[in-house]
Amino acid sequence: MGGQNVTLQGLPVEEIVFAPGVPPVKTDPNGEFEVGQTYTQFVKLSAPSKRYPILFWHGGGMAGTTWETTPDGRPGWVMFFLHKGYDVYVSDSAERGRASWARYPEIYPSDPVFRSKKEAWELFRIGPPGSYAANPSERKAYEDTQFPVDYFDHFADQMVPRWIGNNAMIQRAYDLLVQRVGPCIVIGHSQGAKFAQQAALRAPEKIKAVVSLDSPPGLDPDKTSAAPARSVPHLFVWSDHQEGNPFWMPFQPAQKKWHDAIVAANGTADWIVLSRIGLKGNSYLMMMDRNSDAVAEVISQWLDRQPSLR
Amino acid sequence: MGGQNVTLQGLPVEEIVFAPGVPPVKTDPNGEFEVGQTYTQFVKLSAPSKRYPILFWHGGGMAGTTWETTPDGRPGWVMFFLHKGYDVYVSDSAERGRASWARYPEIYPSDPVFRSKKEAWELFRIGPPGSYAANPSERKAYEDTQFPVDYFDHFADQMVPRWIGNNAMIQRAYDLLVQRVGPCIVIGHSQGAKFAQQAALRAPEKIKAVVSLDSPPGLDPDKTSAAPARSVPHLFVWSDHQEGNPFWMPFQPAQKKWHDAIVAANGTADWIVLSRIGLKGNSYLMMMDRNSDAVAEVISQWLDRQPSLR
């Protein structure tokens, strides 16, 4: 949903043979195209026990697959929260997965970014910087990692290319989704948490709670008022091994400012560092880690504690 | 599943700022990447009444969304065949949708192809060549079209870019899927039907039936023996308005040769032109047309008639 028409003109016509034996097709790269749509799949229970559905918004370079099954084949958070009685909506953001993507540089402003296995291994804190090796048996994960390291390459099957600079387009489609679904909870991972926090400011009457997992710096109370979020309980969840990591060090301080601004606006904001509540060794991919159900249980219990969700 | 490692080297390192406030990341486009994987989502009934599951393989420039809901919001064939008692597996082929895609020309051999709305409108026979207009109210569909024309732009939200020249890669992942799922029925649309027919030759002990919807020319009995397919019932289904259309005219004669070769090898092959059994005006997107359930019913009844599926 949410596609907008974009017209291209002036590009040269090409002849393409789609299959042997089929006449060449004059493929005109010009014309009208749908751009900026998001894909959402939902599962509604016949008798949900919870009042509001959960919308799952994945991180950058990922798609809705994030929430489905773990790389080692266990049920993911979709099934966990269905069992808890929630209807669930799993999205692929614009430009990712089934949402499709558009020609660049004619429509998207830049080239796509492809994440290598090394970058994923290190940025996602399965092991420390420098611990990746091309040969799986030589990779040195954190000793206490919860990530199912034997299935890392299979996890890499889920990664999708992304662009830098399409954020307004992605946000727009998510905002439309919220309007269409109605009152809901949003669980966002990484970049998806940024979109969720922004969506809550724009539709505080629709979004009943935001759960942010390892969210990057985004909203800054020095520039944006947190007041509209005062009616939207926020939970910030942080996985392990962020201390001392140069990429991750700005994340918590920046988000702490937003957390504090929500509290200062008389809102509800909670802050959970998993390693401080007995859940050690979680990677960025906490919904795929071996203790993924334990992490989900923390979130589930927090949701149960919010009076506004009853 | 089915990703294979590809290593890139020698490309220059780039610095990318993923979000304001986050330190720039040195993004090394070199390294290891997973390539060629397919994505499959399955729904298993608690008590399937049918012996074998159905695998749904979409056409070129499309993804598994093809089978989910129709552009005008009715349940698609996934739900239809679940109600008939089948377990269902819906795939995104390698390079499409959630299966992800890879850098070109370094990994894929060519540029992607983006289908415009005009090309889709005319190739998919919603209206005759020349009947498309940028302004929706000026488009001239076939008078008897079954396609929900008011939702054409929403259909266009589902289209994904494709490549020419990745067929062996896509086929390989589908062949692996068949081995993993085990005995199954494959319903393939367009390019997906080509992959299904090829898969049946490679795994006739696993594939129990193939349903080909508007399949392009593919297997040629002058070059490939149809004998391995003798134990695999084949159904060829054709939508309307193909006569006189220069793009579509080679399709049926080429596939009729393959149909006849299966029969000559003492196999089972059936041929249904929808307009000759009272279903007029179907577009290429017969699983999205207003009479999509009626088309599905034709296929369902054919499956029920195959002794080998009981």
Account of the 3D structure:
- Two copies of one chain form a homodimer.
- Helix content of chain A is 24%, strand content 17%.
- Chain A is α/β, with parallel strands linked by helices.
- In chain A, helix 4 packs across helix 5 (191-202).
- Chain A is globular and about 65 Å long.
- At the A-B interface, strand 1, strand 4, helix 2 and helix 3 of A face strand 1, strand 4, helix 2 and helix 3 of B.
TL;DR?
The structure is a homodimer of 310-residue chains. Chain A is an alpha/beta fold.
How is the topology of this model organized?
The structure is a homodimer of 310-residue chains.
Chain A: E1 4-8, E2 14-16, E3 25-27, E4 31-35, E5 39-43, E6 54-57, H1 77-83, E7 88-92, H2 117-123, H3 152-156, H4 167-181, E8 184-189, H5 191-202, E9 207-213, E10 234-238, H6 251-264, E11 269-273, H7 292-305
Parallel strand pairs in A: 6-7, 6-8, 8-9, 9-10, 10-11
Antiparallel strand pairs in A: 1-4, 2-3, 5-7
Essential attributes:
two-stranded antiparallel sheet, 24% helix, 17% strand, 7-stranded mixed sheet, homodimer, alpha/beta, 310 residues
Strand arrangement within the widest β-sheet of chain A reads: 5-7-6-8-9-10-11
Order of helices and strands of chain A: EEEEEEHEHHHEHEEHEH
Shape of chain A: globular
Largest sheet of chain A: 7 strands, mixed
* Intertermini distance of chain A: 29 Å
The amount of beta strand of chain A, in percent, is 15-25%
Q: Tally the helices of chain A: what do you get? A: 7
Structural class of chain A: alpha/beta
Q: Please bin the fraction of helical residues of chain A.
A: 10-25%
